[in-house]
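Input chain follows. Return structure tokens only.
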Amino acid sequence: MFSLKSIKTKLEKERKAIEAEIKSLNTPPEFGNDMDDSEKTDETEAYSANLGLQQVLRSRLENVNEALQKIEQNKYGICEQCGKKISWLLLRILPSSHLCQKCKKSLKK
């Protein structure tokens, strides 16, 4: 049986994993005196890529936190666009979803 409690647990685990990943990417490059320019360039490029990934992760984290807040407010599982219930199947796959399947499809058009 799939329940709101299991969704909340899944969201909390996802939040911890995202926070840990953001933290691991948050280390700026350290340029030592023994590094040549190409190594410094590589380090800088890797750090820039990490910044982009951090932004994506922060957005996911925001969605997860919003879903957890909705659970606490008894507003979870309601489509933000049409106000109808989001199917349990969709919430099981993507527990941080804030749109029903029909509204998601209409955004893609």
